[in-house]
Amino acid sequence: MLRDVPLPLSPKQIRSIVEAQHAPIGLWSGAVSSGKTIASLLAFLIALVAAPDHGLVVVVGRSLNTIERNLIDPLQSKHLFGPLAGHVHHTTGATTATILGRTVHLVGASDARAEGRIRGATIALAYVDEATLLPHAFWMMLLSRLRVGSQSRLLATTNPDGPFHWLRKEFILRGAEVGLTNWHFTLDDNPSLDPGFVARLKAQYTGLWYRRFILGEWCLAQGSVYDMFDETRHVVDLLPYMRRWTAVGIDYGTVNPFAAVLIGHGEDNRLYAVSEYRHDSATALRQLTDAEYSRNVREWLAGVRRPGEHGAARGVRPEWIFVDPSAASFMNQLWTERVPNIAPAVNDVLDGIRSVGVALGSGLLRIHRSCTGLLGELPGYAWDEKAAERGEDKPLKMDDHSADALRYALHSTAHEWRGLIDYQEAA
Ligand SMILES: Nc1ncnc2c1ncn2[C@@H]1O[C@H](COP(=O)(O)OP(=O)(O)OP(=O)(O)O)[C@@H](O)[C@H]1O
Ligand SMILES: [Mg+2]
């Protein structure tokens, strides 16, 4: 079957495909785009032909949609799988596919009903995409449905997570005991990557994610979240003319500090944290009402000096004001006053941190020296190591107000600025 495939496979890919035919559990782990999915899908096709007739063949992913995108689409690509691609039939949205004449059940692990489809079944062959993202209980249930020791097998791919993740602790580190063979892939194991692509890929991952997704390490979320932050590189005294006033991010607090950060898109095509507003009720010895905050924010924006214009040019109208989504009362206040362009910020903490990390790491984002609250927080913004030891990645909840405001502004607009990244500079 390998002879039908037009791809020049790397030695690691070939070795994994061959060894997988004898491993009760085969795991392709490591860097992104390192060729894990292609190798594991080939191993899956071979195992499918050999799979016992009794028992189901299941493909598990986070959702039906990710299964279609990550697995069915490549399987149907002639460029990748040659004539085999013609034997992969699937109608978008259907929960089965026919692959090499055999019915394959597609199971989204986030869909509780889907789980029911395999609960009582005997499974002959299972393929799991993005294994670390599966609920632990789902993985255990899947294993219990496989007749381990017989011909049935489980093939899975994953990117690394923290060192205390259940997949590493209970399976990878106990490989011999549980019958798991792990192939660790790095970017060098994908023979198709050109240097320009690798440079772009590297620029998309910084800090913790660089170590996990580029270097392929199961590393702990520890130390500084923004370890790519470098005062000499990121802090500026002079600002260029701003083409656009991209956004303001606001982290709301009454007892805790209230922080806002203004982002501009400079004529040099970089992003700038131009100015910030902060009110710390603890040092000011006074809490402000929502109406007072609203007035202060409006006054702050009206007073921001516009760089690159004549000296007296002041006042900006940001395209968006993204507010901490939990600050409902404050958002209502702004709406009541008809402050334009208010929206709740996108508040996925880890994705947001990644966005800020990419903006910093690629050199796209610069911060004006006047943003003292933000500059004071960034170096100390750290991962919660206690949580990481429980297998959970999250930053410590402390002195993160301006950092959150920056995250709200940047992550909520990431689709607008991603294209500005200069990959040459980033590499
Ligand atoms: N031997 C090969 N020959 C040609 N192209 C390949 C080969 N192996 C992988 N590729 C291509 O390289 C890209 C990345 O490969 P693949 O999807 O297998 O990586 P991955 O390790 O699964 O990445 P991720 O962690 O992002 O899921 C894909 O576009 C794939 O088609
Ligand atoms: Mg993959």
Content of β-strand: 15-25%
User: Mean pLDDT score, rounded?
Assistant: 93
- Overall tally of domains: 2
> How would you characterize the largest beta sheet?
8 strands, mixed
Q: Give the names of the bound compounds.
A: adenosine-5'-triphosphate, magnesium ion
What value does the Rg take, in angstroms? 25 Å
Q: Indicate the percent of residues in helices.
A: 25-40%
| CATH fold-level topology of the largest domain | Nucleotidyltransferase, domain 5
Determine and state the CATH class of the largest domain.
Alpha Beta
DSSP helix count? 20
Characterize the overall form. elongated
The counted number of beta strands is: 15
Q: Can you tell me the residue ranges where pLDDT is under 50 for at least 5 consecutive residues?
A: none
For the largest sheet, list the strands in their spatial order: 3-4-5-2-6-7-1-8
SS-based structural class?
Answer: alpha/beta
Q: What's the N-to-C terminus distance?
A: 39 Å
CATH architecture of the largest domain: 2-Layer Sandwich
Assembly category = single chain
Structure explained in plain terms:
This protein has about 425 residues and is of the alpha/beta class. Helices cover about 40% and strands about 20% of the residues. The model has no long low-confidence stretch (mean pLDDT about 95). The strands form two sheets. Strands 3-4-5-2-6-7-1-8 form an eight-stranded mixed sheet, sandwiched between helices. It has a seven-stranded mixed sheet with strand order 9-15-12-11-10-13-14. It contains 20 helices and 15 strands. It has helices at about 10-20, 35-50, 65-75, 80, 110-120, 135-145, 165-170, 175-180, 195-205, 205-215, 230-235, 280-285, 290-305, 330-335, 350-360, 370-375, 385-390, 400-410, 415, 425; strands at about 25-30, 55-60, 90, 95-100, 100-110, 125-130, 155-160, 180-185, 235, 240-250, 260-265, 270-280, 320-325, 340-345, 365-370. The protein is elongated, with a radius of gyration of 25 Å. It has two domains: about 1-190, Rossmann fold (3-Layer(aba) Sandwich); about 230-425, Nucleotidyltransferase, domain 5. The structure holds adenosine-5'-triphosphate and magnesium ion (MG).
